[in-house]
Amino acid sequence: MQPKNEDDMISVKTDKKDLEKFYHKLETSADLDPLLERIGDSKYVLLGEASHGTHEYYTWRAQISKRLIEEKSFSFIAVEGDWPDCYKINKWIKVYPNSEENIQDVLKQFERWPNWMWANWEIAAFATWLKQHNKEKEENKKVGFYGLDVYSLWDSMKIMVDYLEKEDPETAKLAKNAFQCFEPYKARDSYASVFRSAREGCKDEVIKLLKEVRRNAHKYDTEKEADLNAEINALVMANAEKYYEAMAGFGDDSWNVRDRHMVETLNTLMDYHDADAKVIVWEHNTHVGDARATGMASSGLLNVGQLVREQHEEEGVVLVGFGSYKGSVMAGSSWGAPMKEMRVPEGIEHSLENFLHESQPKDKLIIFDENRELAEAFREKTGHRAIGVVYDPNWERGNYVPSKVSDRYDAFLFFDKTKALHPLKIKPKGELTPETYPFGI
């Protein structure tokens, strides 16, 4: 996904001043009106982020989501997170039985690195708003919060066995067989090593379980959304096997398996809700922005944004990217390393971030198809920064993805200067509530 040579870093050539008239200011929630108008009746709105550790990306996604829920009756939020952990947030905001007393206790259960992605005050504030919103709603109108990712193999296995032992003993036998297939390798250093060593037939055990759960899901009704919880956990088990098997082969297939899983989970969620369901997706730009408009395509990689456009274009799909010129971010220096606040350098020369800063050093909203000249200007290939959970500010050039930005996204939120988000261990200055963020914190 990184530029292979300097030719991949072509800049936007249009005169910067010529485009200023097309930018929308971005200061308060009311400034999102043009984006809400662009979304219209679309059923799929995918909101990106240029890092997993930036305050403004989380809070502005929350502001957009809040307006979509209140004004356009969006049904649920689906995020780049593990299903079992995110389902605990879902239970809390819907006030289901046996949920935690406060949101901090829920978020502290996010243990898989990088846990700051969800165990932070920005999420705590938004989840609190969602719970308040849901209190006045009928059961089938409460907004949900679900995880799309494929990483929670062990947690999903345990949940399946524990639940099915109580509710469906016959299917529980299949779950135990699937669990036992991988159990001897659980202590190994990585999932990839599990799949190098696991006996043949593990995949068959998991697929058999998934089919049986889907066949019997209508019976699982002793807990709210129990049928959905069972089906998605089984789906995670089935696709985790494919994902880590691909990872063990050190190829690019694992990326495609993961993004296909997230779209399959998204489609399952949409099918579970009523025919009028609308979804908001929160994921990194590398998943949200259409891969066909980036250097990913030449490597045979696809992503969520591309697949959702291909599968649901007629129902309305809007992809929204995020980016910033400079600031700070929460990340780790290596995989599993302690999180720390890092400096985000100024966008490099010829990059999208540098262009938007020099043309107008202010926060802004851009709707690419509002004007043909605007769309054409941002269709020229340029480097667009992507910061991962592992980050080295000293190796900036390798963090830019060659992109035709107006093909990659329908809209873009640019922030001239951003700051790191606030993990639960690091309290923000001032009160972080749905009424105060992203303004004044």
From TrEMBL:
It comes from the Bacteria. InterPro entries: Emycin_Estase, Hydrolase/PRTase-associated, UCP036794_erythomycin. This is Erythromycin esterase family protein. It comes from Autumnicola musiva.
